[in-house]
Amino acid sequence: MFTASWRSLLRVFRAPADQDPLSAALGRLERQVMEVVWQRESVSVRDVQERMPRRVAYTTVMTTMDRLFKKGMLERDRGGRAFRYRAAYTRRDVEKAVAASLLRALLDGGGAARPMLSNLVDAIGEQDTALLDELEALVREKRRLVDLKANPE
User: What is the DSSP letter of 142?
Assistant: First the structure.
């Protein structure tokens, strides 16, 4: 059986800097399939097909789920004549990997990071000053750890 790892999840979301990582990793139909799978512990292709938001052919769902398996997003076991699938990662894990990939792409973009980070801080400050304080504390802690690593005592 396939065992998911954080590193393999991040590999799924590596995309050229000019592409949206989620769109590069998962198409619309793949995202819809994952939404159905995340709602259940274990599903068959038929289970997913019946719960799709729009009518999709069985073979299309089967092909999509096979692709998601090959990308490492789904795990599967044979249950009788058909496979039973389950999510290899929680929705939260996927969201974290996508966010990390977006940030990597942003920071690899040269000077593009400063305006984006400035807008992020502005938006947080306007919406939630407690979150802004938390962000400041996280930055201070990270700076302390980086300094400690650079200058071990």
Answer: H
